[in-house]
Specification:
By secondary structure, the protein is mostly helical. It is built from 14 helices and no strands. The radius of gyration is 21 Å and the shape is globular.
């Protein structure tokens, strides 16, 4: 009798590289780099193509990617329970947790060291604070209270300040206003995500607002309230002289469009309308930042 022995092929090098890249959450890292660049550009437009900015982006990318990798290692048990995260490299078993943790720790520390050596200590310190709050405060807190969303918005709002600190070596009022804008923007963005994937989050035991209030009223109200706050927050940039009338007009128009979708989901909570608000948030931020860069570039 012939016995056929099936061998399980080891993953290819390219597949393993893809898994490590996926650990860094490329879409989030890209957003972080864009907002870091905008912060640096607003602070010092003349540095737009400088080596200082290149080093800032390299260090920030390494630290952000490593932080994302460590987050996935520490949340692997919960990620296995959610459809949207179960196929990530660690919960799916494609990467061992120890390997992913070593990778994440290494590139995080390399990123912080790169910023300290090639940029400045303030940028490195802000990045270290971003990593620490995300990993050691937000990550454990999100399994305890829905208020973790607001805590998580802090590290998410720091990248423009990192860029500003890299360009000027200090933090001025413009840096703080950019922080406030991005902090506020994240809240309707993530409350919409929470409502869209509320069943997944409930399955994993995350006490999000959407899992605590199945009616969706509280989530909808939060989405509308924070979106409403975006317009006056963004206009502060023009009030303090960082930007001009072009940006102010864009902020009002974009804010009105975003608010329209937010009010709809507040009045009639549904997954479809939450998705509309989520998509509006994705469109809003790059257009707002693009208007800010254009306004400064044209000297309005």
């Amino acid at each position: 009798m012939n016995v056929r022995v099936e061998s399980i092929a080891a993953p290819s090098v390219s597949a393993r590289v893809r898994d490590y890249v996926e650990l860094t959450k490329p879409r989030i890292t890209t957003l972080v780099l864009i907002t870091t660049w905008v912060g640096a550009f607003v602070a010092a437009p003349g540095l737009a193509g400088s080596w200082l900015l290149v080093h800032t982006l390299i260090g920030t990318a390494l630290a952000c990617g490593g932080c994302s990798a460590l987050n996935q290692v520490w949340e692997a048990r919960h990620d296995r329970l959610m459809h949207r995260t179960a196929r990530r490299p660690v919960p799916s078993g494609r990467l061992q947790a120890a390997d992913a943790q070593l990778f994440g720790t290494t590139i995080t520390l390399l990123g912080l060291l790169h910023l300290a050596v090639f940029v400045n200590l303030l940028a490195a310190l802000l990045t270290a604070i971003t990593v620490a709050v995300y990993l050691f405060v937000y990550t454990p807190l999100k399994r305890r209270t829905w208020m973790a969303t607001m805590v998580g918005a802090i590290p998410g709002a720091l990248p423009p300040m990192i860029g500003w600190a890299a360009a000027r070596g200090s933090l001025d009022i413009g840096a703080w206003v950019l922080f406030v804008i991005q902090f506020i923007w994240q809240l309707p963005h993530f409350y919409a995500i929470g409502w869209m994937y509320r069943e997944d989050y409930a399955r994993a035991g995350f006490p999000l607002l959407s899992t605590l209030d199945p009616s969706g009223r509280l989530s909808g109200n939060q989405i509308a309230a924070w979106t409403c706050a975006l317009v006056p927050a963004s206009l502060i940039l023009s009030i303090v002289g960082v930007s001009g009338p072009l940006f102010a007009a864009a902020a009002v128009l974009l804010g009105a469009g975003f608010l329209f979708t937010a009010v709809r989901v507040a009045l009639k909570p549904s997954e479809l309308l939450a998705r509309h608000a989520f998509l509006a948030s994705i469109i809003y931020l790059p257009l707002l930042l693009g208007a800010l860069v254009l306004d400064i570039r044209l000297g309005f």
